Amino acid sequence: MTMTTSAAGPLQGLKVLELGQLIAGPFAAKTLADFGADVIKIEPPGSGDPLRQWRLLHNGTSVWWQVQSRNKKSVTLDLRQPEAREIVRRLADEADILIENFKPGVMENWGLGYEALSRSNPGLIMLRISGYGQTGPYKDRPGFGVVAEAMGGLRHLTAEPGRVPVRVGVSIGDTLASLHGVIGVLMALHHRHRTGRGQVVDVALYEAVFNCMESLLPEYSAFGVVREPAGSALPGIAPSNAYPCRDGWVLVAGNGDSIFKRLMHAIGRDDLGQDPQLATNVGRVARVEEIDAAIGAWTRERGVTEVLEALAAAQVPAGRIYTARDIAEDPHYRARDMILPVRTHDGLTVEVPGIVPRLSETPGGIRRRAPVLGEDTDAVLKEAGLTEAQIAQLRERGVI
């Protein structure tokens, strides 16, 4: 396992209690854990977080688990039982941050809402990720990332014109919400440093998507224009598209004024590069079909590698469309430690994504593998003040 050069990380000393499952809450906790936070993940006895069983499994456990739960401790608690909820309260009293992504109201029904927990721990920061947020007319609706992507405006644009909108290919709505949640937590920590007071960070999945939708709303507000799907093109910015080669596709972004001239020279179309009507983006957008046709005619006669080498020499941004194999074999990924090996509890060595972002003085790292279910229950409960006899009784009654 690759360890960080800084054993601590910038978030050393922060205690995080993770009550979420699957993607949104756990991804936020994973990000904090990567940078040194002590994350205690609460899972139901027996099955644990459903992500343990998602996608491809090795010996019954998802290899995705090795990414999402690295650097965390696993404690099993049956939150349906009062004794388990009392343990959560004890752990929350010592925590800096609590992360949950249940449907609004669930934590309150358990007696674990922010108002209750902050009475004994006023500095507690609670990150709450849900489909529609903690307030509003939709708050009680079940909300998953795919629905949020649709409501946030993204799904309408991920299509070829006139064809069915498709998903991005990963759970982007959940991940965007997680990252917004981490930003909110860090801002709340800054506020607590000055005031000593915690607060709630309320992140709605659809709002996290909506926050990344660029000019979508102001264009409608100012001009009544509804942005429509454009396939691989970048509407209103030209040229920027995917172009066919003999053996695949390349993405070319020649939409800067000087870049466009270099691109046209590289493909032997100085007539377009020197055309005064195409000197700015406005003119190029008006003739984008002509420009795309010229680029496509040049790329079709060449292989992907030849195209990329020619455009790199011309200082034109371009790239191939990577598969997992391309990523695993790319030297740049390796040089920047974006691919790291970890060893699972049962001996499998698997490569996982590296740590993002890169900090020069206090980098994050992988300090421990993802835990097996309940691996840290006894140790964490002993730290919380429970005796071995009490822990044994809780296990006998199925609380842990």
Structure description:
The chain is of the alpha/beta class and 400 residues long. The protein is 38% helix and 15% strand. The chain is built from 18 helices and 13 strands. The strands form four sheets. A six-stranded parallel sheet has the order 5-2-1-6-7-8, with helices on both faces. It has a three-stranded antiparallel sheet with strand order 9-10-11. Strands 3-4 form a two-stranded antiparallel sheet. Helix 1 (24-34) links the parallel strand 1 (15-18) and strand 2 (38-43). Helix 1 packs across helix 7. The protein is elongated. Residues 1-6 have low confidence and may be disordered.
Would you spell out the secondary-structure blueprint of this structure?
Blueprint: E1 15-18, H1 24-34, E2 38-43, E3 57-58, E4 61-62, H2 65-68, E5 72-76, H3 82-93, E6 97-100, H4 106-109, H5 114-120, E7 125-130, H6 145-151, H7 172-195, E8 200-204, H8 205-210, H9 216-223, E9 240-245, E10 248-253, H10 257-266, H11 270-273, H12 281-286, H13 288-300, H14 304-313, E11 318-320, H15 324-329, H16 331-335, E12 339-343, E13 349-353, H17 377-383, H18 388-396
Parallel strand pairs: 1-2, 1-6, 2-5, 6-7, 7-8
Antiparallel strand pairs: 3-4, 9-10, 10-11, 12-13
Helix pairs in contact: 1-7
Low-confidence stretches: 1-6
Task: Tell me the CATH superfamily of the largest domain.
Answer: Crotonobetainyl-coa:carnitine coa-transferase, domain 1
Shape: elongated
Proportion of strand residues: 5-15%
Domain unit count: 2
Structural class: alpha/beta
Number of strands: 13
Largest sheet geometry: 6 strands, parallel
Number of helices: 18
- Can you tell me the CATH topology of the largest domain? Rossmann fold
Question: What's the helical proportion of residues?
Answer: 25-40%
Protein name: Formyl-CoA transferase
GO molecular function: CoA-transferase activity
Keywords: Transferase
Organism: Caldimonas thermodepolymerans
